[in-house]
Amino acid sequence: MRKPHAPVSHEVLVEEARFILRTLQRDDLFGDRVRLTEAERVLSSSISLPFKDYCDFLNKFGYVREDRLNHTVEVTEGGNLVAQDLDDAEFHARLSRHFARELSGSSARPLPRGDNGSAVEPAPSLVPGGRTRPSIVREAPAAMDDVLDRRYRRGDPIGSGTIGTVFSGQHVSLGRKMAIKEARSIFQFASYLRRDEIVRRLRSTVETHASLVHPNIIQVIDQNPEREFPYFVMELAEGGNLRQRLEVSDDGRLELSAAIRILLQLSYALDYAHQQGVFHVGLKPENVLFDALGNVKLSDFAMARITDRDDADGQTPVLVSGSAVGYSAPERLQPGASQEPTASADIYALGMLFYEMITGKLPGRRSPLPSQARKEVPSAFDDVFDKMTRDELDERYTAIEQVLEGVYKAFPTKEVFSQGTILQWAKDPNPLPAPPAPVEPPKMEADASDLVTGEIEVAEAEKIRTTVAAPAKKKRPPPPPK
């Protein structure tokens, strides 16, 4: 038995962490469910540090999964691999960093460092026979706890939501800045779904988003749904999100010209996605991002649908975060409503979003019309806003093109086009013609009644024989004279 809280070495921590993982998988001790209190009672006398410290480490990095509601713990697939003595450099680095304070009091003497920062064995010593034991240079283990799949370096968190946490990141070999979204919290929010179903939905949704290539849609670069906590990689929107811009602006509203520009860019992004059969269904200020030039980069297409559930019990058919409720179309929140997304749901959210941009508030039942809430807004836009945000589907716009038509008619040109604007085509006015279809070689016709596979007509064979001349025979030299 080890003395609790005594100085420990890295090797002891690794040994005890693996011991805990193996013990937690013993059905003969715990049965089907491992309760935290029971696990602590069984293991505490055999480990150097408090069981809670080990459990916090293992849960933080996904080697175990704690259910704090039911006070149970289970070993994950990643934890099972570590328990089998898998020599995982990432596990070693994580453990060293997490328990740095405990290791600093260890009696184990750290190895000296060479000029390049590598750990070096002590000076050469004599071995039997008078020979010297050569010094061995060992490379210091890389700090891989923040490097995913040897490709992406994860930085500081920059946002979080129902799906998980977004981190700043960098492509290791290219040095390019990017954003990494790790799906962790979704497994707690959507506890009514099986894990494999959540992973399947997440993977499919990310693939769908990645298929959308548009100047105003965030680009999805990569994903790995096979990890304990799946992640996907996107371009980094360095201009923040719309929520941040509203919070730092006067009265929580934007300049009218900026709000119109954002409305148009969002409209074209949604119009393009709708033409591909993709609907956002979760539009809110937090997923309206901006690049370094201040242009819209819309993110999280269809992410809100990952948590959809069957409405067999008459419950609200979708789980939404608190920040999204005010922008959700009524049909998305009604029990028993159809779960098939429509363009109208995105149009409703777009109208609510624009109202907030120009007034600083979300509209309610008795809120003033846009032109009444802000004098610079032309009254012609009131009808457009009204048709964007009607509760009844059959009274609402059904296509983004209708919204764009109303916006261009309502606002004067100076509000839409001004100095500093980069004009881009929404649709290619001069697309290249489609390449011609490949021409198939002419087929030789033959009488099937006369020929059998592998046979050649006699006349054709004779033609070939007479065309190719036979080699001339060499004359024999005359016999020698007698």
List the helices and strands and how they pair.
Layout: H1 10-24, H2 27-30, E1 34-35, H3 36-43, H4 51-60, E2 64-67, E3 72-75, H5 77-83, H6 89-98, H7 100-104, E4 119-120, E5 137-138, E6 147-148, E7 152-160, E8 164-171, E9 177-183, H8 186-189, H9 195-210, E10 220-224, E11 231-235, H10 242-248, H11 256-275, E12 288-290, E13 296-298, H12 330-333, H13 343-359, H14 370-373, H15 380-388, H16 400-410, H17 413-416, H18 458-467
Antiparallel strand pairs: 1-3, 2-3, 4-5, 6-7, 7-8, 8-9, 9-11, 10-11, 12-13
Helix pairs in contact: 1-5, 11-13, 11-16, 15-16
Brief sketch in words of this structure:
The chain has helices spanning 10-24, 27-30, 36-43, 51-60, 77-83, 89-98, 100-104, 186-189, 195-210, 242-248, 256-275, 330-333, 343-359, 370-373, 380-388, 400-410, 413-416, 458-467, and strands at residues 34-35, 64-67, 72-75, 119-120, 137-138, 147-148, 152-160, 164-171, 177-183, 220-224, 231-235, 288-290, 296-298. It has 482 residues and is an alpha+beta fold. The relative contact order is 0.06.
* Subunit arrangement of the protein: single chain
Largest sheet: 6 strands, antiparallel
User: How many individual helices?
Assistant: 18
Strand order of the largest sheet: 6-7-8-9-11-10
Structural class: alpha+beta
Unreliable segments of 5+ consecutive residues: 1-5, 106-144, 453-459
Distance between the termini: 115 Å
Beta-strand residue fraction: 5-15%
Shape type: extended
Mean pLDDT reading: 80
The beta-strand count equals 13
Question: If you compute it from the alpha carbons, what radius of gyration comes out, rounded to the nearest whole angstrom?
Answer: 35 Å
Helix content: 25-40%
